[in-house]
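Milestone 3.1: sequence recovery, worked example.
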């Protein structure tokens, strides 16, 4: 572990287990190097469907600062060979862009329908930032644009759970196992699944050493995402006269009571999520509200609602009267916010 990680001591993980009835047990924290605690967790749940958070927390407190490895989830329910091929493309893209060796990649077969790839935080000298998950989501989106079709972009959320290596995936009875890049390259999907019938040693699979190129990229990338977020916040409509309890403008009320047509639902749900968070609504309640609206004519990407709800948690705001969807559902004659804006406009003219 490098000096930065030693100093900040980001070593706490959350343990979780999925029970046979579908209930998730979580909230137990342990040091990531506490093998005794992790092994006890394995024994307690038969080493089956057990997880840990991707994030590493600074304290034994899930609200404390955290860092996270760069991570990708590649899933293909019907074609494991396709997932293997996409994972190879992802490894090539990542090592080329960050100028790191494949020995710095943690590669796992998930035990079921895909693969996990992570870059340890030591490689790029990770530091805490509110923009980590947003950055990683952008990286996954970029990978999609390069033809890596099976990458899952729904995983970039707080307290994201990851199967513990060498634990059993009950969907298949196979283990989540670490792989060398050369194994991913030369073995077929069927051969990898055969390997996963037994746990594997994790010793010496990855060289987690600092890369100056990767570290420089990480600092620049975080700054770029933060700058873009600040720009978005700066262009958000002024809400100083607006936030009075749970006051909701007519455009939002109209959207909540209608069936939205194709072509505008994604941008509308994003605007709604930001507004709901702006009036201090909890993300889970945001998800519930938007899903109620969506149930009238569901979108093809249901996980989108969950993603934007957690994204809005860090980007609250009201899109305002200039937003094309808000304009479409506007009722100016009964809108207090429109009157506020109009009053400001006329007032500014009188003072010229």
């Amino acid at each position: 572990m490098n000096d930065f990680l030693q100093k900040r001591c980001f070593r706490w993980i959350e343990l979780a287990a999925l029970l046979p009835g579908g209930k998730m047990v979580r909230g137990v924290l342990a040091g990531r190097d506490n093998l005794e605690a992790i092994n006890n967790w394995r024994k307690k749940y038969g080493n089956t469907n057990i997880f840990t958070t991707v994030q590493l927390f600074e304290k034994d407190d899930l609200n404390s600062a955290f860092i996270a490895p760069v991570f990708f989830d590649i899933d293909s329910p019907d074609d494991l060979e396709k997932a293997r091929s996409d994972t190879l493309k992802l490894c090539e893209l990542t090592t080329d862009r960050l100028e790191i060796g494949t020995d710095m990649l943690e590669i796992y077969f998930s035990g079921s329908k895909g693969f996990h790839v992570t870059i340890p935080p030591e490689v790029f000298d990770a530091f805490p930032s509110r923009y980590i998950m947003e950055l990683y989501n952008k990286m996954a989106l970029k990978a999609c644009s390069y033809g890596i079709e099976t990458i899952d972009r729904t995983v970039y959320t707080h307290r994201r759970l990851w199967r513990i290596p060498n634990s059993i995936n009950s969907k298949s009875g196979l283990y989540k196992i670490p792989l060398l890049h050369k194994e991913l390259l030369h073995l077929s999907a069927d051969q990898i699944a055969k390997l996963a019938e037994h746990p594997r040693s994790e010793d010496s699979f990855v060289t987690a050493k600092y890369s100056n190129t990767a570290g420089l990229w990480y600092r620049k990338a975080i700054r770029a995402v933060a700058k873009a977020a600040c720009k978005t916040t700066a262009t958000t409509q002024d809400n100083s006269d607006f936030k009075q309890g749970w006051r909701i403008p007519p455009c939002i009320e109209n959207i909540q009571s209608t069936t939205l047509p194709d072509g505008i639902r994604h941008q509308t749900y994003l605007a709604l999520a930001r507004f709901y968070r702006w009036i201090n609504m909890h993300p889970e309640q945001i998800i519930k509200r938007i899903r109620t609206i969506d149930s009238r004519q569901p979108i093809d990407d249901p996980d989108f609602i969950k993603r934007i709800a957690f994204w809005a948690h860090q980007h609250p705001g009201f899109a305002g009267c200039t937003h094309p969807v808000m304009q479409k559902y506007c009722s100016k004659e009964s809108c207090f916010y429109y009157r506020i804006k109009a009053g400001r406009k006329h007032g500014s003219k009188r003072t010229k």
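DSSP finds 14 helices and twelve strands in the chain. The radius of gyration is 23 Å.
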